[in-house]
Amino acid sequence: MKNSISEQSFYIESEEEDDEHLRKHENEEEGNESDFSNEDNNDDETNRPNSLTSAWPQSYRQSMDLYSNVPSPSLHFLGTPSLSRLGSSFFGSSLIRRHTPEVLPSLHKPLILPAEEEKAPHRRSSHGLIPPLHPRKSSIKKIPDIERPSKDAHGLPISHQSTYGQAVVNGMNVLCGVGLLSTPYAVKEGGWAGLSILFIFGILSFYTGMLLRYCLDSQPGLETYPDIGQAAFGTMGRIVISIILYVELYASCVEYIILEGDNLSAIFPNAHLSLGGFELDARHLFVLIATLAILPTVWLRDLSVLSYISVGGVIASILVVLCLYWAGLVDHVGFESKETILNLPTLPVAIGLYGFCYSGHAVFPNIYTSLADRSQFPAVLLTSFGLVTLLYGGTAVLGYLMFGDSAESQFTLNLPKGLMVSKVAVWTTVVNPFTKFALTLSPVAMSLEELLPSKHTKSHLYPILIRTALTISTVVVGLAVPFFGLVMALIGSLLTMLVTLILPCVCFLRILKGKTSRLQVTICVFIITVGTASALVGSYSALSKIIQSMI
């Protein structure tokens, strides 16, 4: 018999079993514990993921699908089936359960279900907040690929399990972002000795990534970072962690705006526009033009086209680095002997810049839960961190050797304008944010759309207004604080230290209280201390320099 699919439902073995489960749960009194709540019964009920039926943000799971499930076109022309499978998802193969594929709710449905639907025992949150009502091992069966839904509600192709190769590329795409452009500038700010901070943060971030895995395995139903926060500190923990993650995404959109203005004005420095007595220089003009070009993509509900284009995040990063290497090693640009060993006055800025390089922990739980073989996760993390750290380190060393103390916050601004590799690097840097802006902003917008009154949930006007307002606000912030490197240092010092170093350790100690070794507690306390000190010193330094630059 064919399996039926309904919104927020699972494939189960048969309709008879479904009815049996339905009758069973109809007879249970409201408030009974679910099948997964058979351990730690004395714990605070609010600390378990199945204790709440609706906690903001309910759209986190869905929005992170949009943000991180970035499919690529088929790579059959390479003639290698494994490479074709590798290309099926560059950024988080699937945030769907390993054994039970979910169908995301349609966008015309309210993001928070009405009370009647929440009480229906055969319904389940599609965002991983509540564990399934039936045990996985008995009622779930493997569905042939031909019977599985090929696309979700947003038109994004669904990939049900990640291979080791896919997960490595996903991890690299998470870690390897615009921070790559600022690594030579970070060496300038911190000196050669400060470069060791990059490798120290890499080691600590790898360890905290492993801690997230232990947190996810501690209780059934934990699949995302906010789930971990809820398991550790209840609803407030979920909300606080979600807000931090959304602010980090919003700040990344501000960086994209600054990036567009800096690079386009470098290409066309003499561009300007006069409007009714207002004179727009090149940077302001291109920020407005870029915003007008980006705005229609923000209004899109089906982001599958952008997902296919933005799949080249790793490729774009490698291409830009290759252009830098070509300019230095082939065209012999720069290469001056530098003797700055340690630059203490500006070292805190370098701390924030190096910290920003490892801001991928928000998606690590998704990569872990999507793995076909979860025992491979340590190897996936180690490979991803190793390759990305080598890429960051090589770019930092070569870029600083080439440009020295004249290194800009983005090394693309230092490349000679007459070289072809310079044009390739700059235009690759300019085009990339056009595909990533909408994907990055969507989780923030969807979380705000949840807060709309139920009578407006079917309206298309309010989501457009919210997304337009968010985009305009990023432009205002980007024009008011047009300091790419300093803003990145602030994000890295404040938000990344929280998400990458501090919160994983705190949640780990809280969730596994009494089950950790003395060595684990000591390491976690050390990492929390390092993260807190880096956050305080780096944030103060970055804010001070931003204020000084604005005066």
Concise structural overview:
This protein has helices at residues 15-26, 60-68, 81-86, 115-119, 136-139, 164-175, 183-194, 196-218, 225-267, 282-299, 304-310, 313-330, 347-356, 364-370, 377-403, 420-449, 461-480, 484-511, 518-550, and strands at 273-275, 278-280. It is mainly α.
Describe the structure.
With 551 residues, the protein is mostly helical. The chain contains 19 helices and two strands. The protein has helices at residues 15-26, 60-68, 81-86, 115-119, 136-139, 164-175, 183-194, 196-218, 225-267, 282-299, 304-310, 313-330, 347-356, 364-370, 377-403, 420-449, 461-480, 484-511, 518-550, and strands at residues 273-275, 278-280. A two-stranded antiparallel sheet has the order 1-2. A hairpin with a 2-residue loop joins strand 1 (273-275) and strand 2 (278-280). The longest helix has 43 residues, at 225-267. The radius of gyration is 24 Å and the shape is globular. 47% of the residues are buried. The model is unreliable at 1-18, 20-49 and 70-160 (pLDDT under 50).
